[in-house]
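1st attempt posting a full record on here, be nice pls
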Amino acid sequence: MKPHVLILAAILCQLDNLIAAPLRVIPQRLESNTHVLIDGKLDESVWIDAPRIEKFTQVELNEGGSPSEKTVVKLLYNSDYLYFGIRCYDSEPDKIIAYQLNRDVSLRSDDYVNIVIDTFNNYRSGYFFMINPRGSRSDGFIDKRSSTGHPSRDWDGIWEGEAFLDDKGWTAEIALPYKTLSFDPTGNTWGLNIERKIIRKNERIRWNNPTRDDKVYSLSDLGEMTGLSGLEQGLGIDIKPYMTFTNHKDSVKGTQDYSFDPGFDLFYRFTPAITGSLSINMDFAETETDLRQVNLTRYPLFFPEKRDFFLQDSNVFSFGASKSIQPFFSRRVGLDSDGNPISIKAAGKLSGRVGRFNFGLLNVQLDDQPGIGSKNLGVARASMDVGQESNVGFIATHGDPTNIEENSILGVDANIHNTSLGSRGMNFSTNVYAIGSYDTGQSGTPPGAFGLMVNLNDDVHYTYAGAYQIDKNFNPAMGFIRERNIRQYYTFYRYRIRPRGRLIDYVDFELDTRLATNLKNRIDNWDIEPGIEIETKSGEEFEIVVAVDRENLFQDFSIADDIIISAADYHFARTELSFETSAHRKVAVETEFGYGEFYDGMRTSYEGSIIWRPSPHLSLSSSLSQNEIDLPKAELTARLASLRTNIKFTPNIGWRTLAQYDNLSESFAVNSRLHWIIKPGNEIFLVMNQGADLEDGWKSTTHESKIKVAWTLRY
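the predicted structure (as tokens):
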């Protein structure tokens, strides 16, 4: 190659590096004995000359434009904490919206500031910390390896944050203890990005990479926070003892029991990047009950995990790209074959990072079950970083929580990521995986499952395509599968336009398709769903979807008592309309109406929910879902109703109640929880569960009251 060509290539490469260079900030180090009082007010002298970030750019609604309001974020640190001081100016402070007061809730209805940190500065994992103008805090973990590619709120850390409203807008202070974070002790640079949302204007501004093509959680597009040194985690020990007092009354069986159950969690950081945890006599008193579902399909229902022990570090064990195939699904642990709770005697986890390797180990010892005994369950997950953004890994499980026999699975996967593909800088990802299962006494080739998904997206285009196969005898005893003996193919494409004008933010044209066959290539089902979605600049959403389906049933299935859908080849079409007001409305509404064919009959569906927030201290919401099905030989009306109340005394004291009813079971249930965070890590829960049968009037079935006290000691 000619010399001048090489020189030109080198110059272009350097220019590209300059263009893509991330923004950088150097926090000011405080003396080790200097700590900041976290009260939400920036009135301490240490903030006066602290390094600041104030160059923000609009992402929404005017990409690349100047913010309508000024924002300043200051950074300090010492050997124990990283501090953020936030000043959000607002020319109309009386219009600031902040409904939420509780800890760890979605802040999509509120103004907020979101801080994203990559503590390893390796573009692969990180944390986010959000705060609104009233001091409501939310946090979570970001993992590029996750099957969804989205941040997870399942991680809960111990940190401090307070906010204060004044005549200039609002201020906030955040203190992140290094004892809460995993990080590389040899590095002095962390990835950082900051985003502010002004919800009434539907405006988002961002520090680094202010583009609609990427979210603030894009770990490859963070700025840099550098110059960090002398960070200490102490002994790295957290001890969390807890005590639970329970009164349980079963009116059907005529029994009443009282119990006192002590237990504790122990966390130890072997290094800043490796954490071990041990839980003895696990208790889930604070866990909210599941939302009820009515199943009108031939597939099993999926209920998400809600127990804190299994939610923490759940990203470490994520595998694959489809919820229809999960080799490890933690809901299988601690429940018998009928879905009843099984006590967990002890559980231990070890997770972290060593060089390019990430790993997670989980071991659980269940209590005795009739005819099964006490079962031991184990899960191992590991991956190795490849290149800048990709990885390969494996997962293994051993144990069957509901059977005296044993079961094992082994799976491998590869995740290829490129967040700047092509001239548009599109986000590209591919996930490929294969899993095999083995049961006691099994011979021959282990049955398995495998799949592939490819995703390519930016603000204009969003598309993915994938396929998977599940063998007839594939059995992940600690996992979840939707069905067996199936080949599934699926695609989705969305094209977005942003009209000029003051009313419409964007219009999405969507096409969703799926095709499934059995392993002999006989069609099982297919459907085609074109749709249009419109969002206004004020945040309202409208959507219309037309679905054309085919269901080629191999066998009968039941949707309710004595209502059978016979095996046959069905073709039917359906139309759905939905509307959703902006989340920031004091009265927010979601509605959906559907009408069309249902196998050899007709189905009309209505769904609606409304939330009313008369003040930041109170929110009330209700929802109703109804399906009216008219078949040649039967009629069915399936109805679900719920009511929620959320009383928020302070950001650290809240009382939530959820009441649910469905007409098929004619049962009513209430879950009510008072949560008091004395300080981060020290909590008290008062919980009441009430069940009732309404078939022949009110008849109490179960009543349970619990008090749980948990305390965290950090060393």
